[in-house]
Specification:
This protein is mainly α. Helix content is 81%, strand content 0%. It is built from 3 helices and no strands. The radius of gyration is 14 Å and the shape is elongated.
Length: 80
């Protein structure tokens, strides 16, 4: 099956979004939307075409991003 790149982006995004939402790891929807979209688009530009690989890697990247931001926020509050 050959799907368009925009459809690949849409489906990969949807898989990642639904997983993060179900697990309670989505966080701020606007931030998550931008991050997932940018992450998946970058991987597609690099040649990745597996919907599940795209969504799984975006999920992992989002989890790392949220942990990193939580650490930075925690340090900022402690320093204030």
């Amino acid at each position: 099956m050959n799907i368009s790149l925009s459809q690949l982006l849409k489906e990969s995004f949807q898989i990642a979004w639904e997983y993060l939402e179900r697990t309670g790891e989505l966080g701020d929807g606007a931030v998550a939307s931008q991050f997932l979209g940018d992450t998946i688009e970058a991987m597609i530009r690099r040649g990745q075409r597996s919907r599940l690989a795209l969504s799984n890697r975006a999920i992992s990247a989002n989890q790392r991003f949220r942990v990193s931001n939580a650490t930075v926020s925690s340090r900022a509050r402690t320093a204030a």
